[in-house]
Amino acid sequence: MKAYPFILILLLCIAGGFAVPAAAGPSSVSVTSYEVDPQVPIRGDTATVTVAVQNTGTESVAVSRAMLYGSQIGILDSPYQSVGEIGAGTTREFTFPIKTAVSDGIHYLTFVLDFREGGSLRYQVPIRVESTDLAVALVERPDVFSEGRTDAVTLRIGNPRSAGVTGVSVAPEGEGYSVVPSSAFIGALAPDQAATVTFNVTPEEGADVSFRVSYRNGVNTHSTLLPLPLIISEGKRRADPVLTNIDLEANAGGYRVNGDIINAGLETARSVIVTVGEGATPEDPYRIYVVGALDPDDFSSFEVTFSAPEGTAEVPLVIQYRDDEGNIYRSSSAINLGAAAVLPDQGAEGFSGTAIAVVALIAIAIGGAIFYSWRKAKTSQ
Amino acid sequence: MVNRKMDTQIRMNTTVVHALIHPGAFFSEKMNAHESLKVPALIVLATGLIGAVNAYLTTGYTMQLMPADMQSMGSFIAAGSAVAALIGGFIFWIVVAAVFFLISMAFKGKGSFNRTLEFVGYGYLPMVFGSIASTAFAYRYFSTVQLRPITDVSQIAEVTLQVLQHPMMQLAGVVSIIFLIWSANIWVFGLRSARSLTTRNALLTVGIPVGVYILYSLYSLFGGL
């Protein structure tokens, strides 16, 4: 009977020795989940790896430390050098910051949990690194841009990545243009999803426009740039008011110009007005001649009155019109004042009456002299 | 006493001014004197000088229509036109006398060409005043207008016509015609005496060419209206 306690202890020891492997910890402790944020890092991203460890046993397990190891991916910090106990039936999470300065692909990190009473728990955490950028495409734009004319430019932003991104926004960059809206916010973009944004761009001469698409992958900010090819020229279809049949006439103190204006373009010219430009002063009664709308191949007559300083050889005749979107266009053509080279002063009008009276007096005097000469000749005979 | 009174009457009838209001008596008296072109030449010279001033002013102003590079030659062209007007006055005198002389031949006129030339020269006297009046009108007109340089050379003729057909310039032309009629009246009496013509034939001799010239002048002045 005396040998029973020893045998029992031996059997218990043997049984205990089989139950707890020498390299492993308590069987009640296991990794239940892990999470990588962002889910799919881009090369160079900073991410976090969170490993959840659960103690399914009925007693607490003492843990000395928790570590994360990687051969290529850098572990930025190891904050769990002294962990303590994991209570019975509880779950403990361990979060490690990492730097994914590695090539695209799947890389493994090793999570190690060392138990205070010997043994450890090891778990392989796969990290998928993918550097695919967002796809940005121009889906609508005019063939050519016109200086000062507003045209719509539509972009489609797609997410070809295997994970979603957040905070997607589009902002135009460059100079020499104005745009509405100044930026567009899309927000989160799930994998294989796309969003569309439209900008109204008004370029000036020498404009340089690009669209920068910015987004966040976890805490990391990324962007991609899409240049907008700007070919500025007159639109192929836009209205083209042309002046013709110009008749310039000098009058007292100024000029009066008549003519026809024809729309030689393919679009309607709206709110067409004709006046004189710099170098001449519009005068009543036709300072500005409002023609109104001119359909393609339609024409209208106009009349403008103005004055110009002495010595002015030519003045610009300005045409202003709008397109259907309200964009304002101006064009001008020079009028040669040599065509009406004589400009009498205001006083000339009053002088002509006096001149006629003088001529009449001269005629009467000479008529009298002639009459007298014949009468005298008749008397002499 | 009677002779002295007659001499005084003769001197009065032969004064140049007398030709203006009593040309019949003036030329009758001149027929008794020797032919002399001195005074008529002076009258034509005076007309030519005033015409030269007129031509210089008119050309000088109209040169403002020319492009800037041509305006530098304006003074030379104006001076040239003045000289041409002066010389042209004498040429025109001879041409007018020759025309009258030839036409009067059709009416069997008698008398030398020099006498005709002399009397035609006296007939230039009203045109001295006519030239002064025309020049005054032209100067008054040009001093009240602004002329722009013409860049399109093809428009020069059109614009020049526009300048010359201005009412003020037309009035100047009408004044010249009125004084020409006065001259023609004197020429009638001059030709009647110089070529021994009847009054009717003298009227035809002078009236035909002068009438044609006046019609042409009126057409030039008002043809564009």
Automatic annotation (TrEMBL), chain A:
Keyword Membrane: yes
InterPro entries: CARDB, Ig-like_fold
Residue span, CARDB domain: 35-114
Keywords on record: Membrane, Transmembrane, Transmembrane helix
Signal peptide: none
Keyword Ion transport among record annotations: no
Transmembrane spans: 351-374
Record's protein name: S-layer domain
The species this protein was found in: hydrocarbon metagenome
